[in-house]
């Protein structure tokens, strides 16, 4: 796929950067709005562009931080099927955590177990320890 025109890429990246700053400030709703504005500019098919997937991941991560776990599941599921999101340990971490928070424990364990194929459990170092404890103790019914 060809590269995005530089002007469009810069505009999308500026919105993403603004979203990142709002996220860091704890203004999750405003951050999501910036990320979604950037995502709206990504040409179709959005999932084929790495920047589109990056924005989906940012939206899902921010929805998780905001406690909107059901929406985070929807967004991160979409990101997990995009070429740049498939096998991405962070996507599976946030998706698994969001599924855990919605009570979908078997799916949560399945998503979190996908991380194990990428090495050690260090991705859990800055996370609530309940997620790693859950992963270590839960075997999904497959």
TrEMBL record:
Descriptive protein name: Tetratricopeptide repeat protein
Gene3D superfamilies: Tetratricopeptide repeat domain
Pfam family, one: TPR_16
Organism of origin: Jeongeupia chitinilytica
């Amino acid at each position: 796929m060809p590269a995005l025109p530089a002007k469009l890429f810069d505009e999308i990246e500026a919105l993403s950067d603004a979203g990142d700053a709002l996220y860091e400030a704890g203004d999750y709703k405003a951050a999501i709005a910036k990320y979604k504005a950037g995502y709206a500019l990504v040409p179709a098919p959005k999932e084929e562009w790495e920047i589109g997937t990056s924005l989906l991941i940012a939206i899902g991560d921010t929805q998780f931080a905001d406690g909107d776990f059901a929406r985070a599941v929807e967004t991160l599921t979409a990101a997990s099927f995009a070429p740049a999101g498939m096998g991405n340990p962070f996507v599976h971490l946030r998706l698994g955590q969001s599924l855990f928070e919605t009570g979908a424990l078997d799916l949560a364990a399945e998503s979190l177990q996908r991380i194990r194929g990428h090495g050690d459990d260090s991705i859990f170092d800055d996370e609530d320890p309940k997620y790693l404890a859950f992963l270590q103790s839960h075997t999904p019914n497959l």
